Amino acid sequence: MEITPASLEWRDAYKLLVGSILPRPIAFVSSMDEHGTANAAPFSFFTAICADPMLICFSPMRRGTDGAKKDTLINIESTGQFVINIVSESIAEQMNDCAIEFAPEIDEMEELGLTKEASVKVRVPRIKESLVHLECECYQVQHFGDKPGAGSLVIGKVVHVHVNDELFDNGRIDTSKLHPIGRMAGNIFTDPLARTFEMVRKTEKR
Q1: How many structural domains is the chain composed of?
Q2: Residue 144 domain-assigned?
Q3: Calpha distance 40→101 (Å, rounded)
């Protein structure tokens, strides 16, 4: 099958992306509007950029119905701050429920029984039930269109990291205790530890 993306309706292009790029880590982003109302939403277009400075990025797409910006993006552009809460199996259902399009004045954390905990460097609360939190200041935002199917790239500078004490071992995070989940296509999620194998990177040049 040969496909030209420009010939596709955006929903079909989206299906190709999420069916090809997987599993995808999930950024469970907490943000806050200028009035102090907290918001929590998951995004599976998410990755690290570099370590010095410590930068991460995620991409909120425009709302599929009318092309409007999502609350998370509006909040970040307004306050310049957000927190990435890493998703473990224990909070998978609440994370998934936060994908519902609640009204902007609804606090998803309170609505779904998640515990707000004060952050150290940013005003945005973190989700206590998450085992790793990346407190971020907005470094840069780039927009790519303003219609359904378009999206933005949010780059955050990590200014503080919380790691649950039980996970931290000699400067490393024990992923067997973190139990992170990833997003597949459709409604399928995966536990990366369901099957693991090691491959040592070669250093010899040939």
Answers
A1: 1
A2: yes
A3: 11
Mean pLDDT value across the chain? 92
pLDDT per residue as tens digits for the range 141-160: 999 999 999 999 999 999 99
| CATH value at residue 83 | 2.30.110.10
Per-residue confidence (pLDDT) for residue 15, from 0 to 100: 95
CA distances from 139 to 29, 117, 145, 150 (A): 15, 23, 20, 21
Judged against a pLDDT cut of 70, whether residue 204 lies above it is answered with no
C-alpha pair distances (Å), 48 with each of 16, 55, 189: 22, 6, 20
Average pLDDT score over residue span 42-66: 96
Fill in the DSSP letter of residue 88. B
User: Taking the C-alpha atoms of 189, 51, 160 and 57 in order, what is their torsion angle to the nearest 10 degrees?
Assistant: -50
